[in-house]
Amino acid sequence: MSRYRAPRKPSTALITVVGQRLLAAELKRLWKDERPQLTRRVAEAAAQGDRSENAEYTYGKKALREIDARIRYLSKRLDELVIVDRAPADTSRVYFGAWVTVQDSAGGTQRYRIVGADELSRASGHISIDSPLARALLGKRCGDEVEVTGPSGTLTLRLQEIDYGDAEPT
After folding, report:
1. Nearest to 127, CA basis, from 98, 160, 151, 165
2. Cβ–Cβ contacts within 10 Å for residue 114, how many?
3. Contacts 24+ apart (CB under 8 A), 86-93
């Protein structure tokens, strides 16, 4: 048995204005607040003497590595992201940033926003543009039906509403 894992497909480098602000705020918080505090605590733990049996020092260094990795990731990712700050010219179709309301065959409705992979939030209804549901909805109009195959089988959805809410029209 091999430990090899095929590399993941890169996610789409699109992000909404709100998503970009959240990532930038996280980067600033990590760099300006959390990292200096943790560095200070690690330095205090190191000053206590024997580091080999100092759990505070060991776990502090591990947490510092995790913060540094996240800072590196966010710095690189923010540089490569393309901010989508306007609604498309044709707002009657589903594109990136759209809020869509879909109805399933049982009559239940769901509302989703198609966003970049870096701003997913199931609680707020944000789905990735790379997800099967978003891929099926892209380019569709109100009244169109889409079929999405998922873990629980094939699901047929009817597109009820498209809204670009906080995006400015072009």
Report:
1. 98
2. 24
3. 86/167, 86/168, 86/169, 86/170, 87/164, 87/167, 87/168, 87/169, 87/170, 88/164, 88/170, 89/169, 89/170, 91/162, 91/164, 91/169, 92/141, 92/142, 92/162, 93/139, 93/140, 93/141, 93/162
CB-facing half-sphere around the CA of 17: CA atoms within 13 A: 8
pTM, rounded to two decimals: 0.82
The residue type of 111 is: R
What's the CA gap between 128 and 115, in Å, rounded? 5
- Measured distance CA(90)–CA(100) in Å, rounded: 15
Alpha-carbon gap, residue 96 to 137, rounded angstroms = 10
Q: Could you give the CA distance from residue 35 to residue 42 in angstroms, rounded to a whole number?
A: 10
Averaged in consecutive runs of 10 residues, what is the pLDDT profile of the chain (170 residues)?
A: 76 91 97 97 89 88 97 96 93 95 92 93 91 94 93 91 70
